[in-house]
Structures are given as structure tokens and as C-alpha cells.
Write a structure and sequence with these properties.
- A 7-stranded parallel beta sheet has the order 3-2-1-4-5-6-11, with helices on both faces.
- The protein is α/β, with parallel strands linked by helices.
- The radius of gyration is 19 Å and the shape is globular.
- Helix 1 packs parallel to helix 2 (41-49), helix 5 packs parallel to helix 6 (150-169) and helix 9 (273-284) packs across helix 11.
- It starts with a strand and ends with a helix.
- The longest helix is centred in the N-terminal third of the chain and has 22 residues, at 95-116.
- 41% of the residues lie in helices and 17% in strands.
- The protein contains 11 helices and 14 strands.
- The structure holds uridine-5'-diphosphate-4-deoxy-4-fluoro-alpha-D-galactose.
- Uridine-5'-diphosphate-4-deoxy-4-fluoro-alpha-D-galactose is lined by residues 86, 88, 126-128, 151-152, 180, 199-201, 204, 216-219, 230, 232, 273, 296, 299-300, 303.
Amino acid sequence: MAQILVTGGLGFIGSHTVVELIQAGHEPIIVDNLSNSTASVLDGIEKISGKRPTFERVDLKVKAEVRDFFSRYTTLEGIIHFAAFKAVGESVQKPLEYYENNLGSLVYILQEMRDLQIDKLIFSSSCTVYGEADELPITENSPVKAAISPYGNTKQIGEEVIKDAIEAHGFNSISLRYFNPIGAHPSAEIGESPLGVPLNLVPYVTQTAAGVREQLAVFGDDYETRDGTNERDYIHVVDVAKAHVVALDRLLKGQNQGNYEVFNLGTGKGSTVLEVIQSFEKVSNSKLNYKIVERRHGDVTAAYADTTKANQVLGWKSEKTLDDAMVDAWRWEKKIRKIN
Ligand code: UFG
């Protein structure tokens, strides 16, 4: 059992990872500033896992708060760093807030790691670092392309900051590049709760079906894909969460090959927007109200992972299907909207 700091541990991927950490016998300590989550997520975590993890409200972009936290938790063995702003469009409007929040917090954490000799870090990266990849599926060797948004840039720079810190201070770190995490815990005790109008496809689909939104807009059907809509690699959030436990155990056991490793987290299978809608309609046995509209600025045509490295080197493989994820996303939406 290891005591592990999970920043952003009340968020969508963070909360699912906390559950998996507890179930694997670890002791997660959650830090979150509640900027995009609520403390009630702890109830869901407790219902699933039988344990209520320690939670501290800390704003990681405030150096004094970071210092104070680490001065009180002296037996941490590793850190899983999720806490970050993640809205692509908002990052274009508020680039400085994105750089301050996403990179400031990372730098302060790395400084504490250096000073306290904590040497294990898992970082939330994104397939956005690959941009419009030249070859599909996307391997970890695919070049990192100029970022389309400040958000994407914070992930690219974050990886660079970690690499430089490793060179100087000898940490061990794994960056996990997520494709499109979706779904919810099968228990429907935790899930995704976007504030306001959802920007991502699946919460927009489930909110439309729940009557919270009028109609889903499908952003373009004139892409060069099998049905003209964008292709993405949608992966169940529980599979993503499990990968973090595997990556953490790899560092705890010293099985990493070199100080810095990168893994794609995807299923390896691309699905188009229309295929996602079809999956939803099938599992919910309903028709979704949608219409095709203009393309959304900044969307790449297609992105799906080559998962060979994660499968063979990390020893992790996604287990759940798109249909599984849609079942769980819909169960969660119905629960929070009190629909039978
Ligand atoms: N889409 C719609 N209608 C919507 C929302 C989305 O048609 O209302 C489409 C998008 O055009 C895209 C697909 O659904 O083709 C998926 O869109 P999401 O916004 O759910 O996901 P993205 O692939 O755009 O974004 C994800 C992550 C980002 C990350 C990005 C990298 O959410 O954090 O991948 O490409 F930066």
C-alpha cells in the first residue's frame, strides 16, 4: 500500500482513478480546489469503495498552499497529477489563466518533489499533442505538432517541464496521453458533471436525451472519414483509471524503462460522431434529436491510438466497449436528472 497524492481527485478521471487506487489497496490523498467539481463526489467514492479518502481543498496555483500541504503530508510515495483546466475553446479566450493554472501548479509540485525527494509522478497528457497526425493509428513516436490551443500547449509544455526536471533532479515520471475518455462508473455513483453547456460530445448526447438540451449539433459531415464525421478513440473512463494504477505500480516497483515514459491511452478503435450517436440510440432504445451543422474550428479529422506500447510495455489494455461506455454514461445522466 502506498500513500499517493491525487490532484484533481474529485474531477471526472481523477475520481474514477481514486476508486481504482483504493480497490488496489493504495491510500489516495485527494487535493482539489473545487473549481470544476464538488465535495459530494467523495460520497460516491465512498459508496463504491467503502472508504472515504482524505480530501484537502488546495489551490495548486498558489505556491504557499502547495508548500503548506506538502509540509503536512510527509509520507507520500507518488503523485498523480490531474488538476488542470481542460476546455479547449475557453483556453483561447483565457490563455494566461490556462498557463498559470496548468503550468504553475505543475512547477510547484515538481519543486516540492525535488525538495522532499518524492520521485514518482504520473502526468495527465492528451492526444492533442499529436495534432492532425500524419499516420493513423497514432503511435507514441508520432511527432508532437504545434499546439492548436493554449490548452494543448499546456500539455506539451507540461511534458517538457517534466523532462527537464527529470534531467536535473532524477525523478521517474510517466505521461499518459488520453484519447477521448467517456462514460461513468457502472455503479452510477460517480460520473462526468460538466458545468453549464457541455463542450464534449458524450455529455451533450446524454443531456439532449435527458431533455436538458434541445438538440445535438454534429460539427460537420464533410470530413474524409467513412461517414463524413470526425473519428475519435472513445475510451471508458474506468479503463483510463485502471491504467493509472498500472502506471503507478510500474514506478513503485521500479519497472520503468528510463526516467520518462509516454503511453497512449486509447482503445485503438476509431468511432465517428454518427457511430457514437448510433451506439447511444441502441443502448438507450431511443432516437436522439440531432442535426448536422458547420465544422467546429480546431477539430482534427481523425485521431485514434496505436495501443501496442501500452499493451506490451505497460501491460494494460482497455476492456470496455463504446456501447459499455454509453450504457454507463446514460445510467449516470438518468440518475443525476432523476429519470427512471
Ligand atoms: N462534437 C459534436 N458536437 C458536440 C460536441 C462534439 O459534433 O456538441 C464532435 C466534435 O466535433 C468531435 C467529437 O464530437 O468530432 C468529439 O468532440 P469532443 O469535444 O468530445 O472531444 P475532442 O476530440 O474535440 O476533444 C478531446 C478532449 C480535449 C483534447 C482533444 C484533443 O476533450 O481535451 O480531444 O484532440 F484537447
